[in-house]
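REVIEWER CHECKLIST
Item 1: Sequence provided? yes
Item 2: Single chain? yes
Item 3: Sequence as submitted:
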Amino acid sequence: MDDEKRIEKEELEITRAFQEILDIYLASQHRKKVEPITKAFNFARQAHKGVRRHSGEPYIMHPLAVARIVCAEIGLGSTSICAALLHDVVEDTDYTVEDIRNLFGEKIAQIVEGLTKISGGVFGMQASEQAENFKKLLLTMSEDIRVILIKIADRLHNMRTLEFMPVNKQYKIAGETLYIYAPIAYRLGLSKIKTELENLSFRYEHPEEYARIEKKIDKTQQERDILYNEFTSPICSSLDKMGYKFYIIGRVKSPYSIWNKMQKKHIAFEDIYDILAVRIIFTPRDGEDENNECFKIYNALTKIYDAHPDRLRDWVNKPRANGYRALHATFMSKRGEWIEVQIRSERMNEVAEQGIAAHWKYKDNDNSADGQLDNWLHTIKEILDDPQPNALDFLDTIKLNLYATEIFVFTPKGEIKTMPQNCTALDLAYRIHTFLGNHCIGAKVNHKLVPLNHVLQSGDQVEILTSNSQHVDANWLTFVTTAKARAKIQAALRREQRIQQRKGEDILNCFLEHEELSNYSNNIEKIWKNRNLKNREELLEALGNGTIVLGSEDKDALLGNKRFKFPSFPFFGKSTKETKKQVTATQFDSIDSKQTLQLTDENLHNSYIIADCCHPIPGDDVLGYYDDEHHIVIHKRNCPVADTLKSSHGNRILAANWDTHRALTFQVPILIKGIDGIGVLNEITATISQQLNIGIQKLMIESRDGIFEGTIWVNAHDVDEVRTICDQLKKIKNIQTIARIE
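Item 4: Structure as written out by the authors:
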């Protein structure tokens, strides 16, 4: 009886959830196509019958939640709602894309197919299935943008219910979200969703930091409310006198944005002064240009408060590539604090909240953002047309094209080109044409000769200079900033690499034939391992370009005359590259990926590798990664390398916790800045060495114009000890900044 009641209750909840979607849809401005939506719901409900999610609720509640997000939070219509309801049917049931096509038509089937995961793909046997799925998603997205919009809705609901997943899956999904999906949401103008995705990812990867910042935000809320009321009161009076219909809201910086700024600038929560921002949203007056009205409101504000001369951002006349329009300005409050003000019309605000979906409603009036979106999709297509054999390279290349603040440059003929901020002359060359990029030798910027890596500024007039004798150089990858440039350079380098590998294969075959040895794969493996190379391809390339020459030592390795002894892993002072050859290999098959690794003083010596890209120490939020060489590498959860691994090889991510007892010490760099004076350095060293009894490994400090800045490397046991060091150093007079360098 209890089961019957539970099922009956669940059926009512399912029906109620679907009715809410219909109510939201019917209240929108879309054409009222209720019949196909109802048909899709009934089909999905039957297809997923009896299946439950990790949370224990009926599986159909997930497609319903995704459809609700698509309808209510992104503002899409009936086709997208149907596709959202059906998005897991092909992947999780016996129904096929052909079945969807026959029942619901070509368009819905195409979207569902783009949302369905695949196996295998263009990266080869060692491929990352995650990267493959993402690549297929982008390929379909370039044909229909609704694919990625529904996928973002799907990811948002998965993040909202992430608590029911195993911890290692939480890290994988949260990292992938922060690395890929939040930037895509930003690029498509979904600012609210982007912020929520970032905060949810932060909450699961760094729960203690998230809770600490939320607590501080709540604690300072009353003070911000007073500041907001004092600041906006005269603004309201002024706009009322001007006859505007408007409303003003306060925007508090998100926990993730605050934490991110703290990490990048090495500052404390109390040192962040832009936690509060003010948004003015007005109704345009009849017959007036809303762009000009933004500036009229800005002028009214300058009569009340002093404006910061360098912080006026005109996104009204030159909208961002995602269609975002607003006028941003920063004013000095009566309390002596800078406050950012965002001025938007109602239309601008709707586009800012719902992104490209809302922009479609207004594209008859203004299609500039449509053009920007088309340009972005075209760039994505070009990247996808050139297959990337390496999953990490592919994801990095795509990601380069997501977060970008635009500048505007001009060709010699006066054509305007939109480029990301900090782009170089070589980036522009590739933006115009691949041939120009491959043969670029420099540029003339404002009629002055500049090198390839010259950083362009908004308003520059640029002429690209080329030479047929110029060839692509691997060093170009160190300074290009756009996804297209990086993809085209890598493609050219791979072509050259293949030529060298073919040469190398001929050389290797000749060597083996001369020594009367077979070219079995295990023989070739002995050679590249003996040469400390990564794989067969690297060996062939090195042979082809003459970096190595085969000789007697290679013959000895093949015949077994050379024996290797791997010394035990000395924990302190070894980098990842050194230790990978020394650490005892752990078989992944014997590891329960759902269990949490316990990092003890003993197993840190002989079972795991501490990543040298982020140098985690006990107390840091960490995870494990099982690499190609059967080692488990320990990374910080916010390490950029770990972010990429979570997005490309999430099935290899392992949860990890510290269980150490201060038997080991770790080198930790600490940044220190302050006002110079006699005895300051002595106070710093005395505090660390004498007062805290902690060893100093290295110290580098430079003083200039009365200000000193430097780095101190201390031998600390864990994060708590580092915090104690920083807290004690802050007490020294004239010290302005103390922070661990991450």
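Item 5: Key structural point noted by reviewer: DSSP finds 30 helices and 20 strands in the chain.
Item 6: Recommendation: ____
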